[in-house]
Design a protein that fits this description.
- The protein has 2 helices and 6 strands, in the order E-H-E-H-E-E-E-E.
- With about 90 residues, it is α+β, with helices and mostly antiparallel strands.
- The protein has a 4-stranded antiparallel sheet. A two-stranded antiparallel sheet has the order 4-5.
- The radius of gyration is 17 Å and the shape is elongated.
- It starts with a strand and ends in an 11-residue tail after the last strand.
Length: about 90
C-alpha cells in the first residue's frame, strides 16, 4: 500500500511550512503511525506530530442545453505533518 499519494502545494501550505508543517494527500486507510513512518522513510526527516482530516464528497450540478448534468469529486484524506526543528522538506528541488 502506497501511503503518500502526493504533497499538497498551495499558498496556505507554503505559509505553514514556515512553522515546519507540510501537507500530504494520503491513502484513506492509513493511520497516523503509518503516515509518520512513511514520511520519515521517504524524506529522511523526523516527524513530531501528524494531524489528519477527511474531506467529504463534493457533489456538483450544472444546467446545460442537454439538461442537468451532475457529477462528484471524491473524498480524500489529508495529513498535516509537523517536523522536528531544523528538518525541512523541499518539494521544488526533489
Amino acid at each position: 500500500m502506497d501511503i503518500i499519494i502526493r504533497p499538497i502545494i498551495t499558498e496556505k501550505m507554503d505559509q505553514a511550512s514556515e512553522q515546519n508543517c507540510f501537507g500530504f494527500v494520503v491513502d484513506k486507510r492509513a493511520n497516523k503511525i503509518q503516515i509518520k513512518s512513511a514520511v520519515e522513510q521517504k524524506y529522511s526527516v523526523t516527524v513530531e506530530s501528524v494531524r489528519t482530516m477527511i474531506t467529504p464528497v463534493k457533489r456538483k450540478s450544472r444546467y446545460t442545453r442537454a439538461g442537468m448534468v451532475t457529477g462528484k469529486i471524491g473524498s480524500t484524506k489529508k495529513a498535516i505533518v509537523k517536523l522536528a526543528e531544523g528538518d525541512v522538506i523541499d518539494f521544488y528541488n526533489i
